[in-house]
Amino acid sequence: MEAAIGRPIPKTEYVHHINGVRNDNRPENLELWVKAHPPGQRVQDAMSHYVESILTHYFKDSLAHISREYLEALTQLINHEIERRK
């Protein structure tokens, strides 16, 4: 995260791993928070990770031609439906 933002992270800031996997340090999986947060994940973040994992596991060969942007759009659609049903 420090390399991505171009500065050291002070003790007052925290790196949040969106998908809950602490060794997944891809920039798109990280958020910088200025306040500590409880352990765990937001429901939407967890669902996004699970959907991507399931699709990748069961449909890996058929998903090879699908772009990451499409998978992200599908995940957003699922998250929207979750929010709508609350």
Quick recap:
The protein has 86 residues and is mostly helical.
In this structure, how is the largest beta sheet organized?
A: 2 strands, antiparallel
What is the CA-atom radius of gyration, in angstroms?
15 Å
Strand content: 5-15%
> What string, H for helix and E for strand, traces the elements in order?
HEEHH
For the secondary structure, the number of strands is 2
Mean pLDDT over the full residue set: 79
The domain tally reads: 2
| Spatial arrangement of strands, main beta sheet | 1-2
Distance separating the two termini:
33 Å
Unreliable segments of 5+ consecutive residues: none
Discrete helix count: 3
Helical content class = 40-55%
Morphology call:
globular
Structural description of this entry:
This protein is mainly alpha-helical. It folds into two domains: 32 residues, no CATH class; 42 residues, no CATH class. 49% of the residues lie in helices and 9% in strands. The chain contains three helices and two strands. Strands 1-2 form a two-stranded antiparallel sheet. The model has no long low-confidence stretch (mean pLDDT 79).
Indicate the topology.
Elements: H1 2-5, E1 14-17, E2 30-33, H2 43-63, H3 68-84
Antiparallel strand pairs: 1-2
